[in-house]
Amino acid sequence: MDANLLARTAQALARREAELRLELAAHHDAISHEVDTFEDLAGHDREVALLEALDHRASDELRLVLAARRRMHLGTYGDCIECGGPIADERLLAVPTAARCKACEQRHKAAGDG
Ligand SMILES: [Zn+2]
Fold first, then answer.
1. Superfamily of chain region 3-111
2. How far is the CA of 69 from the centre of ligand 1 (A)?
3. Do 62 and 21 touch, CB atoms closer than 8 A?
4. How far is the CA of 111 from the centre of ligand 1 (A)?
5. Could you read off the pLDDT of 89-99 as tens digits, one per residue?
6. Neighbours of ion ligand 1 (CB under 5 A)
7. d(CA 2, ligand 1 centre) in Å
8. How far does the centroid of ligand 1 lie from the alpha carbon of residue 76, in Å?
9. How is residue 53 annotated by DSSP?
10. Angle 104-79-15 (CA atoms, 0-180°, nearest 5)?
11. Less packed terminus of the chain by CB within 10 Å, N or C?
């Protein structure tokens, strides 16, 4: 794998990880604040549900980022986790967390488990 591409995706993943960690910390602060100040109970529940949904999305993405950084550490980054073939450079630049080549990703999505 091209060293320049690896450096760029590594940087993108590190930056995304930092952003997601900040986002999650902000959600947690907001949730505990909401739980402390519940005057309007219905509004409060809606707010907490919204924050938890955002939290869920951010944690899912953080999981993908950490998995990609782990593959980088192991030296398997850029190899498809299904077929072992190389993931296209353009795909990695567009989606640094990509774990599958395009063909496997399409099969995976068609199979309906994520
Ligand atoms: Zn594949």
1. DksA, coiled-coil domain (1.20.120.910)
2. 19
3. yes
4. 14
5. 999 999 999 99
6. 80, 82-83, 85, 101, 104
7. 19
8. 13
9. H
10. 105
11. C
